[in-house]
Design a protein that fits this description.
The complex is a heterodimer of chains A (about 300) and B (about 475).
Chain A: H1 3-36, H2 54-60, H3 63-96, H4 101-109, H5 116-126, H6 133-139, H7 155-180, H8 184-192, H9 197-225, H10 229-234, H11 249-258, H12 264-289
Helix pairs in contact in A: 1-12, 2-12, 3-7, 3-9, 4-7, 7-9, 9-12, 11-12
Chain B: H1 6-25, H2 27-31, H3 47-52, H4 60-65, H5 69-72, H6 76-86, E1 91-96, H7 101-117, E2 121-126, H8 131-141, E3 150-154, H9 158-163, E4 167-168, H10 177-183, E5 192-193, E6 196-197, E7 200-212, H11 213-218, H12 230-240, E8 242-243, E9 249-254, H13 258-273, H14 291-305, H15 318-323, E10 327-333, H16 336-343, E11 349-352, E12 362-372, H17 377-390, H18 393-402, E13 406-407, H19 410-413, H20 416-419, H21 424-430, E14 434-435, H22 442-459, H23 463-484
Parallel strand pairs in B: 1-2, 1-3, 9-10, 12-14
Antiparallel strand pairs in B: 3-12, 4-12, 5-6, 7-10, 7-11, 7-12, 7-13, 8-9
Classes of the chains: A mainly alpha (about 300), B alpha/beta (about 475).
Chain lengths: ~300, ~475
């Protein structure tokens, strides 16, 4: 055996360990969840009858599931564009900052490394209907106290605000990396041609940032589709309330699977729908957002 | 700069999507730092066999753990006959409870004492599972033929655990129903399903009224006269409610918390106090929509909508607002005494039985010690002995002193030391009329009541309609449950 072959063999052997890990810990449970979706499986029971598409039929008639589905899409529709626009604006501003740039970057990044549970509980206090800090603050401008998390109409947007705030730091850092990768010569050439700031943003920055935007849009859409901890920790009564107005799909999956009902088959059927949803949203985003620019 | 290749990105994204599905399953781990791993534990090992062929016994070990019903329920006589055969042979059984420091410490001592008296029995104590994961771990262990012989369960789970065939009936020789009903508090009948007892508790808990004496004094209310009726309750709540000039609530007369113990208060206490049994005696039919139930529900939600003595989310939740001295009256369980002792040692509060109406009633609950199907032959004998010890008067005394939970035996509760205790006394007094609700799925039942409350408070729905909505949901669960139970 030649030296290069032996080296390749060693490399494959070493790769086998993470591969085995991936297959056993990720792939097999995924496929098994797919299979469980076709059974009625109460974890404690010995009997697990095959029910075919029964779980999916039940889902179609489950009003709460449909509400959760709609809410989840709202988390995406509200959270993703807001997060992208804000983080891009802050990243652009940060590229102009010379002094204390590191401090700003750190400040924006801190929420991202804070535990979501802790974040959720702190915001729960801030959002308190009467004496919360936010109500005290808006009170000084003469705005009457708002119910926030206690209201069926304000609760979901209130949670989206926290999501955006939490992920902002991560998105800013990615945008900064993308912005730094754009060579200055394009801007110099544009300035020589007399282009203004807006023209440079539209014709140089945004097109060249396209891969970054696509990446962030896709990853933040996926994380919005999976929103869970924030809802469980912040929503009124901790169950996606009031009146299911903040219930997300993953939280509903959790409630059905582990909340005391142990309807594993039914919950797995929902994860299959969630998988299809994530796949669809991602493909649509890639279709709509990905552009090839030749320079 | 290099634009990312479309195919590469697509592959990456598909990978991310697949990973997303997984993390969706494992979502609970993001919420609770030490929650269990992905969804169906033990599923990777043998989900197909178990799922596709319900009758097949996956492994010999599992087969041994799932004996026929007949074998699982030997008579006391059979157990006694088996005794000589195992004399001199050491039997090891497992006892499981969720992690709670004082319970863990106490049971460890109890096991030592028990083993000294019964040198042939060894007890393996598993008490390290956090509450949030407890049911999952029990469920995950079962298909693998693992798990406890004697298990500590919340009584509200019994419906599900008996339905799935996880438990066996208590041996009637060692635990005759007549004795359980005569010596224990009536709430223990919550462990009786389909005419059989499935477990027996060491300790029980119950709801009572907590009242802040300082806030009452500040409002000119005699702090030694807590409300004893619905009318007095509203009166004192109104007097102790304080708002600032801009109308914001400063002090709530009542710590409003339907998601805390509030839903239990309405279900078992307010309904019964108003002369309505919330469920039929055979546990198959709900009576919530009865005018008396609607009346009780209206009185309850009126506290927020009409009297405005409390608010949703005031200082985040009811017990926090009471604990921090922002609410005068509060309904909570005996288990809260230790929390308040630790978190608010200076809070000047006292306990009284729940304010009553036409009748007296309160909600009581308990953690119950059950025998699983794993316990057979000599193990069943040893498990029964352990269970008898665990529910003996002496253990109950240690339990109330070290854990703070109320004794389940009436004779122990009536001992002066406990009955005359300022904090424990009112709780113990209430146990004579404490009732435990039968739950098919406690979480969904609770949610149904919370939704009804929110419909009234947030959407202005009429109480009778809101109660009907909740009753329909819970009745549907009951119907499904009883249809699936093999009698």
């Amino acid at each position: 055996m030649s030296l290069s072959r032996r080296r390749a063999l060693t490399a494959y052997l070493l790769l086998l360990v993470p591969l085995a890990f991936f297959v056993l810990i990720r792939l097999v449970p995924t496929l098994s969840a797919l299979q469980v979706a076709f059974y009625q499986w109460d974890m404690l029971s010995d009997e697990r009858p095959f029910v075919g598409l029964g779980n999916f039929q039940r889902l179609a008639g489950d009003q709460v599931f449909l509400v959760a589905l709609l809410n989840t899409l709202k988390y995406v529709a509200l959270g993703v564009p807001t997060g992208l626009v804000l983080s891009l604006a802050i990243a652009l501003a940060l590229t102009r900052v010379r002094r204390l740039a590191g401090v700003f970057r750190t400040v924006y990044f801190i929420p991202f490394i804070t535990s979501l549970v802790a974040v959720g509980w702190v915001w729960r206090w801030l959002y308190q209907p009467q004496r919360g800090s936010i109500n005290e603050l808006i009170g000084t401008f003469g705005i009457p106290p708002q119910p926030f998390l206690q209201s069926t109409s304000q609760a979901l947007p209130s949670i989206v605000v926290v999501n955006v705030w939490h992920d902002l730091g991560f998105q800013i850092v990615i945008f900064l990396a993308g912005l730094h990768a754009i060579p200055d010569i394009y801007y110099e050439a544009a300035r020589l041609d007399g282009a203004g700031r807006w023209a440079m943003l539209r014709h140089i920055t945004l097109p060249l940032l396209n891969p970054t935007i696509v990446f962030l849009a896709v990853t933040s859409a996926i994380s919005s589709l999976q929103v869970f901890s924030q809802v469980q920790n912040m929503s009124a009564q901790g169950t996606g309330g009031p009146l299911n107005s903040t219930l997300s799909l993953v939280l509903y999956v959790y409630q059905k699977a582990f909340g005391g009902a142990y309807q594993m088959g039914y919950a797995s059927a929902m994860t299959v729908i969630l998988f299809a949803l994530i796949l669809t949203v991602t493909v649509i985003q890639l279709r709509l957002l990905s552009r090839r620019y030749e320079y | 700069m290099q634009p990312v290749n479309r195919r590469q990105l697509l592959q990456l994204t598909f990978g991310a999507a697949a990973a997303g599905l997984l993390s969706a399953c494992a979502a609970n781990s993001t919420a609770k730092p030490n929650a269990a791993p992905t969804s169906p534990p033990a599923a990777p090992a043998q989900p197909t066999t178990a799922a596709a062929q319900p009758q097949a016994q996956p492994t010999p070990a599992a087969a041994a753990a799932q004996p026929t019903t007949a074998a699982a329920q030997p008579t006391a006589a059979a157990a006694a006959q088996a005794a000589p055969a195992v004399a001199g042979q050491k039997v090891t059984i497992e006892y499981w409870q969720y992690f709670y420091q004082s319970k863990q410490d106490l049971v460890n001592t109890l096991i030592q004492d028990f083993q000294k008296a019964n040198p042939n029995i060894e007890i393996v104590h598993n008490s390290t599972i956090p509450y949030e994961q407890y049911q999952q771990k029990l469920a995950a262990a079962a298909p693998a033929g693992q798990g406890p012989d004697v298990v500590n369960l919340y009584y509200g789970w019994l419906g599900k655990f008996t339905q799935s065939g996880y438990l066996q009936e208590l041996p009637t020789g060692a635990f005759p129903a007549a004795t359980l009903e005569k010596d224990f508090f009536p709430v223990v009948q919550g462990a009786k399903l389909q005419g059989k007892y499935w477990g027996v508790p060491t300790a029980v808990r119950t709801l009572a009224l907590f009242y802040n004496k300082d806030l009452m004094t500040a409002s000119g209310v005699d702090p030694n006269k807590p409300p004893t009726t619905w009318e007095e309750f509203v009166d004192i709540a109104l007097k102790t409610t304080k708002r600032s000039a801009d109308g914001k609530l400063d002090t709530a007369g009542f710590a409003w918390g339907p998601d805390g113990q509030g839903h239990q208060w309405w279900r078992e206490a307010l309904n019964r106090q108003n002369g309505l049994s919330p469920m039929s005696a055979d546990l198959k039919k709900l009576n919530w929509t009865d005018p008396k139930g609607v009346e009780a529900f209206t009185w309850w939600t009126d506290l927020v909508t009409k009297h405005k003595v409390g608010e949703q989310g005031f200082y985040t939740d009811d017990q926090t607002s009471f604990k921090t001295g922002h609410a005068a009256l509060h309904i909570d369980g005996s288990f809260r005494l230790s929390t308040f002792a630790a978190d608010a040692p200076t809070l000047n509060y006292a306990i009284a039985p729940l304010p009553a109406h036409k009748d007296k009633a309160t909600y009581s609950s308990f953690w119950v010690n059950c025998l699983t199907k794993r316990a057979t032959g000599p193990r069943l004998e040893a498990s029964t002995k352990w269970l008898q010890y665990l529910t003996s008067p002496d253990v109950m005394r240690q339990w109330v002193e070290k854990v703070g939970e109320l004794p389940a035996l009436q004779s122990v509760a009536k001992e002066d030391k406990y009955a005359k205790d300022a904090k424990l006394g009112p709780f113990l007094q209430s146990l004579d009329y404490g009732y435990a609700t039968f739950f098919v799925d406690e979480a969904s039942d609770r949610q149904a009541v919370l939704d009804a409350v929110n419909e009234v408070i947030l959407n202005g729905m009429a109480p009778d309609q809101a109660v009907k909505g909740a009753a329909d949901k819970v009745q549907a669960m009951l119907d499904e449950y009883w249809a699936s139970v093999k009698s």
